[in-house]
Each structure stands twice: as C-alpha cells, then as structure tokens.
Amino acid sequence: MRTVYVDELFLINSVVNFILLAVTKRIIRARASAPRLLLGSIISALYAVFMFLPHNKIFYSFAVKFIFSLSLVAITYNIKKIRQYVRAVAVFYMVSFAFGGAAFAISSLTGWQETSYLPLKILATSSVISYFCIILLVSYYKRLSVKEKSFTS
Predict the structure, then answer these.
(1) What percentage of the chain carries pLDDT values higher than 70?
(2) What is the DSSP letter of 57?
(3) pTM metric for this prediction
(4) CB–CB of 59/47 below 8 Å?
(5) How much is the average pLDDT of 62-79?
(6) 6-28 and 62-77 helices cross at what angle (nearest 10)?
(7) How many of the other CB atoms lie within 10 Å of CB of 89?
(8) Which residue has the higher pLDDT, 1 or 2?
C-alpha cells in the first residue's frame, strides 16, 4: 500500500488545477485574476485532500463531483451570462479530459503500470504536451472561423 502525504497531494493538485484553470481562462478569454485562479486551484486541491479522509464516500459520487466542478467554474471565473458559463464549464471539462488523456497516454507509452498515482515527471510532461496541443487547436480553430467569416462577408 502506498503512503499518501497530504502536503504533496495538496501541492501537486494545486499546481495541476491552476494550470487547468489557466488554460481554460485563456481559451474562453475570461477576465479571471491570478488570485481567483489561485483560489480555485486551492479549493479544488482541498477537495482532493477531503477524498482521503474517513467517511469520504460522498466525495466520490458523480453528483457531488459535478456540482463541485460547476461551483469551481463559477467561483474562479465569476461569469454572469448563462451561455458563457455553460461554455466555460464545457471548456473546463475538455481541458481536464485532454490533460488526463495525455497523462494516461504517456504513462501507457512509458510502461508505467501503477494506476493509483502518476510520477511527477509524467504529470509534468503530459501537462506541457496537453497545453501546447490545446493552444494549437484553439488557434487553428480561430483562424478557420476568421476565414469562414471573410468568405461569407
């Protein structure tokens, strides 16, 4: 059985969540300040810590995870319009899934067999790869939409 250190869990989750929230901010062009991003990353890291506490079954339920993610986006970005809020939640999930998928892919390609945790090296590598892939895709999409608008005008 692996020992989980609360400070490591909190720190790693804070950093990864900050990156996820920052990438989401960049894609949706939200006006979230660095303190708001930091607050969101700290709150989400606390959620990860609470998952390791006794009597924690509620934190593993789909409903609580979903409500928490909705709250996290609301707290971090403070979006007033419902359409922009739904878009922010969707982008946050897409960014999270992309980062998670990249971490899974790199761990599979490197032969990492342990499923309960990822080494920091794999986590950092997958974060960098995901970030650049997402930014490239977003910039490609923006160029495509600009070209389509110029052809229809």
Answers:
(1) 84
(2) G
(3) 0.76
(4) yes
(5) 92
(6) 60
(7) 20
(8) 2
